[in-house]
Amino acid sequence: MKIFTNSLLAAALLFFGVSSFAQDGIYDTRFVMKDTNCTDGYYTVVIETKAMDAASTFNLSDQNYRFSFNKQAVRVYDILEPEDARSVQIDQQILAGIQTDHTGGISLFNDHTLTGTIDSVVSYNVVLAGGTGFRLKFDEWTPIGCLKFEILDGTICPEFKWHDHNPANFPPTFIGEIVGGVLMEADENSYGNFDICLGPPCPDVFLPVELVEFAGEENNNCHIDLRWKTVSETNNAYFLVERSFDGLDFRPISKEIQGFGEGSTDQEQYYNFVDENIGRANYYRLAQVDIDGSTTYSDVLTIKSNCYTSLVGISELFPVPATEINHELNIKLVADINAENTRMVVTDVLGKKVDDYEINLTTGPNLLTYDTKGLVSGTYFLQVVGDDWFSAPKKFVKLK
């Protein structure tokens, strides 16, 4: 009788799901540290998501939050172990069962699941069984669920790392939206706590540096002024400033910036560095190197440049969806620079690169074409990539 009742409910909810909003959804998602229990050796983390802004709100459907972590800090998830003995567990299912959103829409979400994959990668899965899909707000984070992690070494940062469309050898995080009753993939905007250190959960040794400030801003010369402050240092040899343009590949951009050196101090120390070769989006972290050679990394600081706010933008793709008959996809671009040796990159929903070719752009409006005839039916993302910048990806669908 329970199965019959649930089936009727799911069918009824799906019937009402056709009133979904027909627009592209864009999401932000993040980790939020909740509780730490150093005695029993675990801590809990909440996964939250929201719409990027008022124009990109959407009805949340199926979700696969995929991430990895430092295997020295957290015991690797093993799907072969009994569920109550696994190192990563679902502590609380928040967006589960029958849910009513702020618009009055009703949804039914199945029980949440965890699946293990290669190495230390985990996929946290939530499936919409029926209904309108849960309408996300843009000005309020929606908690999805709380995960419990077994601490292997409390003195090491867990280093949670979201999987978006890079690297391509593993499926990216997937957040679905309901558009006209059809499941589509929403676009990603940002991943909070992306490959950063949330802080050692149970530090049983003195940290070499107590960093209380790491900040920066763009100056009038289109350079970025970075500054940081410590209130204590122990055997701190030097700092290195590392930068990334994609949030993944960090490289040193400074020489060794000398710390207090051998011994200890509890006096405030001030440091600064100017980055003169910035990109559109700039990700910074500090590498603190002890006198014994051990290295500790700071949280990641993200600074978007106002000098590169509209370097290249894809304004329109048409006709959409592309078909075998209408397979020539027109691409409208607006560029603020003459960009030679720029590349047009096409990826599928799994983040796999399906095409990559060179284009040349001139300042102002540009109209390009892309032949989709060689693509199978599915959802794809098109993006313009330069040496140190990239446009926001634009989604299109190919049908038979």
Task: Describe it.
The protein has 400 residues and is mostly beta strands. The chain has three domains: 2-191, Immunoglobulin-like (Sandwich), CATH 2.60.40.680; 209-306, Sandwich (Immunoglobulin-like), CATH 2.60.40.10; 310-398, Sandwich (Immunoglobulin-like). It contains one helix and 30 strands. The chain has one helix at 2-16; strands at 26-37, 42-51, 59-68, 88-93, 97-100, 106-109, 113-116, 122-126, 128-131, 134-135, 142-150, 161-162, 174-179, 182-185, 187-191, 209-218, 224-244, 251-252, 257-265, 269-275, 281-290, 295-297, 301-304, 312-318, 328-335, 339-348, 353-361, 364-371, 378-385, 394-398. Strands 16, 17, 18, 19, 20, 21, 22 and 23 form an eight-stranded antiparallel β-sheet that branches. Strands 3, 7, 8, 10, 12, 13 and 14 form a seven-stranded antiparallel β-sheet that branches. Strands 4-11-2-1-15 form a five-stranded mixed β-sheet, with no helix packed on it. Strand 1 (26-37) and strand 2 form a beta hairpin.
- Total number of beta strands: 30
Which range does the strand content fall in?
A: over 45%
> What's the CATH C level of the largest domain?
Mainly Beta
Chain-averaged pLDDT: 82
- How many domains comprise the coordinates? 3
CATH topology of the largest domain: Immunoglobulin-like
Q: How does the overall form come out from the CA principal axes? A: globular
Helix content range: under 10%
Our measurement of the CA-to-CA distance between the termini, rounded to an integer number of angstroms, reads 41 Å
Task: Describe the oligomeric state of these chains in a short phrase.
Answer: single chain
Judged by helices, strands and strand pairing, the structural class is mainly beta
CATH architecture of the largest domain: Sandwich
Low-confidence stretches: 1-22
- What is the overall number of helices? 1
Question: What is the CA-based Rg, rounded?
Answer: 23 Å
Largest sheet, described in full?
8 strands, antiparallel
